[in-house]
Design a protein that fits this description.
mainly alpha, 0% strand
């Protein structure tokens, strides 16, 4: 390895000192460097061609060699140096195609900064790869990029972080279209996280009522509850009715924590689910939080009606004022309450 490095350094010194006697000799030296397959050597020779105005080096051959070497960083530098030096002998589109073929999103993005690059082709390559981070960077930073096309692509990824960054930081982004794209996913998590992110990033122009209706339409109890709990200005009554309609005992129980909730309506809804576990949990929540407005006797009757021996037992053990005799007498089949 050391002998090859020594030989290559000798070649570079020989060329730089212009000791060669003919174009033919220079061409042979070029071939020797290309034969190493080393991208750095090939790039350095190209730079010498431009800096020293060497006549006898085949730039097209060097270009093919740098592509064959497969080092995307040196391909990029090769094209960039030629363009910056206003050197006309390099086919940057050929290098661009080779970089796109590697699928390296970082250098596909960087290549857009080279004068004369085919922006549309680079843009399409990033969209096809689907890398949300670089789709966003491309839209934000590359002059001449197709914002609408990139916007559609970033919406399709469902990546809320970068969709929101796109809406906030990309000049020319269409907030309404992004919002509609999120709604069309019919994904409650996406819709909720979009709302949270837009609030955090202070994005203006968001139609909160439209997004609220969209999350209600999903019927997803978890995110309907989170929307009611965490979004200022949410229509609590409307969200509450939706939670109740799902019949999901867990989130009906959670909804008691939402400021402005209709406690009586929620209590009735929870009883209708027949879920003894969350009826019992509700009693515990009431006692721990000194919550008012709940009819304990009514809950006791409802939990007895479920016939769930485990939670009837825990109710009798842990709820102050529980009617022990009623709980035992009404339990027909289980042996659990004999422990009392």
């Amino acid at each position: 390895m050391a002998s090859e490095e020594t030989r290559i350094q000798e070649i570079f010194n020989y060329i730089r000192e212009k000791k060669y006697n003919s174009k033919e000799e220079l061409s042979k030296l070029e071939d020797e460097i290309i034969m190493t397959g080393d991208a750095q050597y090939i790039y350095e020779l190209m730079r010498d061609v431009i800096r020293l105005n060497l006549d006898g080096i085949n730039i097209s051959k060097l270009e093919d060699a740098i592509i064959k070497a497969g080092d995307v960083g040196y391909m990029y530098r090769f094209a960039g140096y030629a363009v910056d030096s206003k050197f006309k002998g390099v086919n940057i589109w050929k290098i661009e195609d080779a970089i796109i073929k590697t699928g390296n999103v970082e250098y596909i993005y960087y290549f857009a900064g080279i004068t004369g690059a085919n922006i549309a082709k680079l843009e399409d390559a990033l969209i096809e790869i689907g890398n949300v981070e670089y789709i966003y960077y491309f839209a934000k930073s590359v002059k001449g990029s197709n914002i609408e096309k990139l916007e559609n692509a970033i919406i399709a990824t469902k990546n809320i972080e970068y969709i929101c960054k796109f809406a906030r930081y990309v000049k020319g982004s269409n907030i309404e279209k992004i919002e509609d794209g999120i709604i069309k996913t019919e994904d409650a998590r996406c819709i909720y996280e979009f709302v949270i992110s837009t609030i955090g990033l202070h994005i203006k122009g968001i139609n909160m009522l439209k997004l609220e209706d969209a999350i209600i339409a999903t019927g997803n109890a978890e995110y309907i509850y989170k929307f009611a709990r965490n979004i200022a200005g949410a229509n609590i009554a409307k969200l509450e009715d939706t939670i109740i309609a799902t019949g999901n005992a867990q989130y009906i129980y959670y909804f008691f924590r939402v400021a402005g909730a209709n406690i009586t309506k929620l209590e009735e809804a929870l009883l209708k689910t027949g879920n003894a576990k969350y009826m019992y949990f509700l009693v515990g929540y009431i006692e721990d939080s000194k919550f008012e407005g709940i009819n304990i006797a009514k809950l006791e009757d409802a939990i007895i009606a479920t016939g769930d021996a485990e939670y009837i037992y825990w109710f009798a053990c842990n709820v102050d004022g529980a009617n022990i005799a009623k709980l035992i007498n009404d339990e027909r089949d289980s042996k659990v309450l004999k422990k009392l």
